[in-house]
Amino acid sequence: MRCNERQGTVITSETQSDLSSGAASKSAPGDTRRRGIKQALFAVSLANLCFLNSWYLVLYQSADGYFNKLPLNSPTLLALAANLCWFSVLTWCCVRLLDQFSNRWLHLAAHLLFFGVLLLPLEFLRIYAFKIPDFRLVGFLFKPLNAAIVLLLGGLLVWQHRRAARGAAVLVGILSPFAAVTCAKIIFLLVSPASPAQGGPQRSSPALAPVPSGQPRVIWLLFDEMDFRLPFEKPLPNLQLPEFDRLRNAAFFATNAFPPGDCTIVSIPALTTGKRFETVVFTNDTDLAVTPAGEGQAGRWSQAPSVFSEAHALGVNSGLVGWYHPYDRIFSGSLNFCEWYPMQLGQYLKATTFGAALSRQIGCLACTPFSRHIYAEMCRLSIANSLALVANTNYGLLFFHLPPPHKPGVYNPTTGKYTIIPVPKPRAYANNLVLADRTLGQMRHKLEEAKLWDRTWIIISSDHSWRESVVVDGQRDLRVPFLLKSAGANSPVMYPAQFNTVLTHGLIMGIIRGEITNQQSAVDWIDKNRAAELPVTGEPGLE
Hints:
The chain is an alpha/beta fold. The protein has helices at about 1-15, 30-50, 50-60, 75-100, 105-130, 135-140, 145-160, 160-175, 175-190, 230-235, 240-250, 265-275, 305-315, 325-330, 355-365, 365-390, 425-450, 470-475, 505-510, 520-530; strands at about 215-225, 250-255, 255-260, 275-280, 290, 300, 320-325, 335-340, 395-400, 410, 415-420, 455-460, 485, 495, 500. The strands form 4 sheets. An 8-stranded mixed sheet has the order 8-7-9-1-12-13-2-14, with helices on both faces. Strands 4-5-6 form a 3-stranded antiparallel sheet, with helices on one face. The longest helix is centred in the N-terminal third of the chain and has 26 residues, at about 105-130.
């Protein structure tokens, strides 16, 4: 009788929680049909909520074509549809099976699992809606009072698990129309003749040109968001960067170098073209519209003369390993080798095969750990590709735009391995600085092993300083590192005059053309060509 009363209450309230309300009972065919429909809607809606991160990034964020490395394709869309289907069927089967048993411990376990699954869409809201950093959430939970409150609420949830599950199921059911929207968009993109694109334009790199005897070698190394003040002037606690210290004590070291912009999307175009830009905006899927300071007329970044196109015109082979910008599209025809990695997580949920896309989207259920894993993998691959190229004498110009020390913190200096465990922001940044330092050490070792260290010019800087440095001491410093090691003999030179690193383009071309031949001539050239303008302010929200 109690079982019938309980089930009657659930049916009367018309909630999806009758999915988990107790033992099955006999009911009229109409009630059974309605109950089955509600269970199906619940299952589909829950699947849609759990894969919220995947379908949002694939169906909506991928519309920003500039950052696309792989176009939105059929295998990716079919994998997304398959993931929604199997999760819906699994949920529906579990709900139907649960209806056949009245064991309270089984229902408790099922409800706790349900609550755990609901953390997946809540994690999405934390990241994209409320923008709460994971380390801050962890710090909040580790405070004794907060931990006690969370445990108390958890105990209350266990005690009233039936009512809580009933209410949560009602909410999931209410959100079921969003699942219909998701499915409709997937179908539309699959059948639409205009999309999805089945593949991007194929670009072939020019063949390597013969390397003349005595041609200078230049390695230009940018560590993304590397600060000047906190590593070198006022180091973070317990931060040791032996490779940077070793280099700066035997090379040109600037103490007042400013980048041309305060974000990657502004600085990199300026650095590669040698022009400061007032505005940088997206024009289409392949390019940026850039307006040089003081000129007022916008042009396209890809059409502006760059350090790579000018080197190519001189018969110098160029190689590039970078991230964020679609370098192969921007510098098509100028680079003999190019490998780049997109920053957007949604790019890594797409694949050319159904199986790869399926597994990546399943991995994205663990939103934050998956994004940290992807970033760590990006760091590992970009560094590995750079190390494989650094001692290749076919290239007269190598440009490495590497992710560290940019957030998130994914390196553990103690173990020397990558990690997905969050730590407080200052420590995370310091750990990534150590990764940058060790990368520099690995490059030096490769060059010394190949007897190329003394024959290679090395320029090290950053596209912008650490924009979140205020978390350390409330201060923000726009300066970036700038180190220059010339080929041949070097001596320590501390350079205090202020200059903008936009001059790097001209400096490199002077080296390649043989106009700058040693450290002193490089210092003289910087003295003559430096400009003291402050950096262009980055656009809000841009990296």
